Description:
By secondary structure, this protein is an alpha+beta fold. Helix content is 53%, strand content 14%. The chain folds into two domains: 7-162, Butyryl-CoA Dehydrogenase, subunit A, domain 3, CATH 1.20.140; 172-307, Nuclear Transport Factor 2, Chain: A (Roll), CATH 3.10.450. The longest helix has 25 residues, at 54-78.
Amino acid sequence: MTEQQPVEDLFRAESRRLFGLSYRMLGSVSEAEEVVQDAFLRYQAAGPEEVREPGALLTTIATRLSIDRLKSARAEREEYVGAWLPEPLLVDETADVVAEAEQADSISLAFLVLLESLSPLERAVFLLREAFDYDYAAIGAIVERTPENCRQVALRARRQIEARRPRFDASREEREEIVRRFFAAADEGDSAGLLELLSEDVVLYGDGGGKAPALGRPLFGAGRVGRTLRNWVRVGAQVGVVREPAWVNGQPGARFLTADGELLNVVAFDILDGRVQAVRSIVNPEKLGHLGPLADIPVLLANRDRQS
């Protein structure tokens, strides 16, 4: 560490970028924060020869830590109960993370799920190149591969991702309006209006992770998704749920809270061509703790049943 750049200043300068990289790698807020903290601890323990380029060293440490964590996480995710979704980021957090990347959609839930199809090495190389614009020589030094090998890895990953990369309507205002109309139709029990806003092949994902009531598997089709969402809104009204609009990982959505302000779940929408293409609902409490105090969903439902 140099006298000209104390670790506190370096943390302020680099922590957001490192978090953005680690979060994209892991899909976990808590793990990304741990990686950033661990990276700075290892940086402080490094010798003077290693810290000539602090930013490069921190990126190398954070990337390698993320690769190691992702290798362990992949086995756990194969046994995950129900659909796996990343831990959500809301608007203020997302603004900081997206600001460090050229492509804002690289933070969306849909894109992060798609990245799960890559190996840890492919994911690191792809993100360093596509989201953070590192050249192949720098990437090679980080992942301990030749620049040419990294170029090949990036090309293979890009081909795999681009074939299924999600697309979203460009206008923020249009996406917000679609979601506003969607919830208005659901609140009013307007089945026809709701179906008009859903793509015929819309998909509904629910992530409870076995920790909270959720869908056992994704639902497909406007009819099934519409009926399920109307039922969710009805049950929410029965237990006094409050809905607040939110931007979730750069996409329009909402968070649902009890009257006491305890968080129940977070929902994000993929909007394309004026219709909802996918709805992702995260109720797993282990993925929501960073957003504030959490509600106990089984207790809420039990109270509703006793009162009915």
